[in-house]
Amino acid sequence: MSVKLNLIVAVSENMGIGKNGDLPWRLRKEMAHFTRLTTSTKTPNRKNIVVMGRLTWDSIPEKFKPLPNRINFILTRSDRDFSQYKDTYKFSSLKEIISSLETEKFKNEFESVWVIGGASVYKEALSSPYFHRLYLTKVQKNFDCDAFFPQLPESLKEISDTEVPVDVQEERGIKYTFHVYQRV
Ligand SMILES: NC(=O)c1ccc[n+]([C@@H]2O[C@H](COP(=O)([O-])OP(=O)(O)OC[C@H]3O[C@@H](n4cnc5c(N)ncnc54)[C@H](OP(=O)(O)O)[C@@H]3O)[C@@H](O)[C@H]2O)c1
């Protein structure tokens, strides 16, 4: 089982992640943290894969699509065509994604796999045997949301990662902290 799924998410105190197909907040440095973690690789000629549900893909402004310097994997049960986008592939199940990572097409191309949302994709990935780590930003405020992060499994322990700052962050009067969890 060589595939490892890393989840990355920012969650409000009331476990919210989204509202009206968008983020409930604008936290520029939090977004930069997301971009840095999901983009950086140790192997220069490899990219990371970002796995997302179709609504998360739709929530990305057109000018930022596909997420640059990453291989974009979109989960959808529809026959929508994404072939106009560079480095972008669609899949109809997480299982199909896991199998494709072992194929010649991808296995020597990527370094890490990041699951970037939304709710149902996080839920499926968290309970998958391939789940590795959860990179969680706790936004210390309640927000009106219509998309929520699933309940955290009990079998998680917090770990430290030198890539993730430990001090409290603050932007626009909103405090937040970065956390990393791994399956026990
Ligand atoms: N705070 C954060 O860190 C964060 C991160 C990501 C997203 N968000 C927010 O979350 C919201 C979007 O998330 P969401 O939960 O509403 O939707 P989502 O998970 O992004 O997308 C749901 C869609 O993904 C497809 N899908 C999901 N699981 C699938 C599977 N196993 N197999 C095949 N297709 C699958 C289906 O697409 P089809 O309908 O096309 O079949 C489904 O309708 C937005 O508000 C966004 O801004 C927040």
Automatic annotation (TrEMBL):
GO terms for biological process: dihydrofolate metabolic process; folic acid metabolic process; one-carbon metabolic process; tetrahydrofolate biosynthetic process. Its EC number is 1.5.1.3. Pathway: Cofactor biosynthesis; tetrahydrofolate biosynthesis; 5,6,7,8-tetrahydrofolate from 7,8-dihydrofolate: step 1/1. GO terms for cellular component: mitochondrion. It comes from Sitophilus oryzae (Rice weevil). PANTHER family: DIHYDROFOLATE REDUCTASE. Keywords: NADP, One-carbon metabolism, Oxidoreductase. This is dihydrofolate reductase. InterPro entries: DHFR (IPR012259), DHFR-like_dom_sf (IPR024072), DHFR_CS (IPR017925), DHFR_dom (IPR001796). Belongs to the dihydrofolate reductase family. Residues 4-183 form the DHFR domain. It is an enzyme of class 1 (oxidoreductase). Key enzyme in folate metabolism. Catalyzes an essential reaction for de novo glycine and purine synthesis, and for DNA precursor synthesis. One of its GO terms (molecular function) is dihydrofolate reductase activity. It comes from the Eukaryota. It catalyses: (6S)-5,6,7,8-tetrahydrofolate + NADP(+) = 7,8-dihydrofolate + NADPH + H(+).
